[in-house]
């Protein structure tokens, strides 16, 4: 993790349940494969008079939503297709190019989001649009500056979204080495590997896919030497190469060396538990503070973990043949008087064993020979 990450605090939100199952901070389940393109708002010209963020796209063209943040002046938009993005951005602009590459992938979702932020306002803009319908973010311009470092630290502290960066030079990642929630790609920036990477994989069922071996549309495999590949792997970055005649992404990890599918699975479980618990509270007139109510709350978590096992996020226990997870509760009598008074239950916990995946294979063979040697 970068030494500067301690200067960043997690974003706040209006909510009722957090991931520790404390009924204070919930968040709705969001599109866990959706992409956000970050672009700095151009400085307005003297004749423009106001913010120069493009504003031509309409609902007819495919604009799904548009929201301006009063605090930062940033504009957040969601588009249904690349043509709608090109209403606001020139076809040869990086935003449009990355949107086009994203939608060219076989597993792209039904939208792209674009956040246009004024210079110096990235942190505020991200804070106010953090819980919109996206999970993976990229920059329109592959320039390693203070915004990139700041963004990486923001993602690291919040631990529920991913920042995907792309550079031709693996050395660019030295300043943010060790980050769990930043993914580093090494590829010529003339091609939008970052957008392709997310579009090809992120919207598949979480737990069903690893981020290695993916074939990307409109991305040319790099001809790397063994030494060049090793340098990229040592930095825990990802390249796109040709093996056995097919293009594929290399190790699917973040800059810390943690695997993306592990963290994506954790986010899936967290988001679903929060959403399902919130739904439980909203759809019942009352959840009693007794064994019955506690059992209801626990059953929600059990159901989410069971689904996570079925999706391949959680390991199968070799002894039982069932998901390797447990859900534990403590009774009302074990809760503090203060918690009971505030109608807060903190006696629910769970654990699970990540399933992981096979990325490499070693085969041991024995050859039987009839040749007699001296």
From TrEMBL:
<dbReference type="InterPro" id="IPR021808">
    <property type="entry name" value="DUF3383"/>
</dbReference>
<dbReference type="Pfam" id="PF11863">
    <property type="entry name" value="DUF3383"/>
</dbReference>
<protein>
    <recommendedName>
        <fullName>DUF3383 family protein</fullName>
    </recommendedName>
</protein>
């Amino acid at each position: 993790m970068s030494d500067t990450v301690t200067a960043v605090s997690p974003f706040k939100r209006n909510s009722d349940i957090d991931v520790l199952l404390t009924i204070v901070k919930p968040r709705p389940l969001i599109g866990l494969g959706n992409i956000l393109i970050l672009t700095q708002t151009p400085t307005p010209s003297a004749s423009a008079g106001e913010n120069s963020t493009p504003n031509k796209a309409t609902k007819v063209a495919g604009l799904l939503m548009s929201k301006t943040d009063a605090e930062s002046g940033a504009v957040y938009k969601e588009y249904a297709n690349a043509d709608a993005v090109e209403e606001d951005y020139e076809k040869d602009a990086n935003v449009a190019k990355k949107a086009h590459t994203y939608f060219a992938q076989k597993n792209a979702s039904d939208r792209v989001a674009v956040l246009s932020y004024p210079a110096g306002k990235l942190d505020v803009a991200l804070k106010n649009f953090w819980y919109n319908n996206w999970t993976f973010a990229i920059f329109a311009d592959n320039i390693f500056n203070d915004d990139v470092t700041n963004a990486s630290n923001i993602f690291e502290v919040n631990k529920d979204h991913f920042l995907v960066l792309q550079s031709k030079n693996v050395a660019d990642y030295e300043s943010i080495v060790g980050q769990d929630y930043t993914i580093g790609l090494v590829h010529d920036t003339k091609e939008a590997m970052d957008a392709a990477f997310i579009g090809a994989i992120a919207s598949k069922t979480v737990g069903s896919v690893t981020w290695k071996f993916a074939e990307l549309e409109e991305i040319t495999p790099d001809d790397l030497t063994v030494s060049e590949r090793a340098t990229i792997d040592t930095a825990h970055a990802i390249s796109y190469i040709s093996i056995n005649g097919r293009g594929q992404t290399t190790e699917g990890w973040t800059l810390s060396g943690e695997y993306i599918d592990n963290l994506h699975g954790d986010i899936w479980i967290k988001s679903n538990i929060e959403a399902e618990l919130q739904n439980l509270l909203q759809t019942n007139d009352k959840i009693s503070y007794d064994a019955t109510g506690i059992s209801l709350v626990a059953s929600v978590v059990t159901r989410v973990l069971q689904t996570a096992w079925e999706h391949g996020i959680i390991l199968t226990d070799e002894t039982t043949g069932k998901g390797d997870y447990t859900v534990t509760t403590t009774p009302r009598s074990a809760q503090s008087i203060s918690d009971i008074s505030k109608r807060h239950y903190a006696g629910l916990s769970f654990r699970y064993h990540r399933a992981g995946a096979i990325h490499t294979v070693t085969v041991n063979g024995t050859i039987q020979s009839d040749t007699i040697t001296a």
